[in-house]
Design a protein that fits this description.
By secondary structure, the chain is mainly beta. About 15% of the residues lie in helices and about 40% in strands.
């Protein structure tokens, strides 16, 4: 079953409580969710991420202490353990405090 998790300001998410039942006992606003999952014996296989430009809704704007409709980035991250989805997190980041860099080889 999926449970909501409390994370740092500007983030929200859920975890697969059947796969990681004790994760919610940790303070994920100050601990890395991935390091915590590995320390609990959950092998992480892959992470899928999606970065999107958005205008903040009221709830996210209040969390980030900016006006409604402020431009931001929404990073959606899904982490898998084997073929099972272990966690899903949304990170909202103020557009004026984020730089995106990517390096790859074709």
């Amino acid at each position: 079953s999926w449970k909501p998790m409390s994370m740092a300001s500007g983030s929200s998410g859920s975890i697969n409580a059947a796969l990681v039942p004790t994760l919610l006992e940790h303070n994920l606003s100050s601990e890395s969710i991935h390091e915590t999952m590995v320390s609990l014996g959950v092998p992480l296989a892959r992470v899928e991420q999606n970065l999107e430009a958005v205008n903040l809704r009221q709830e996210e704007a209040e969390l980030l202490r900016v006006p409604l409709g402020t431009a931001a980035f929404l990073l959606r991250r899904t982490t898998y353990s084997g073929q099972k989805r272990a966690s899903y997190v949304n990170y909202w980041v103020r557009g004026d405090r984020y730089a995106f860099q990517d390096t790859f080889e074709p």
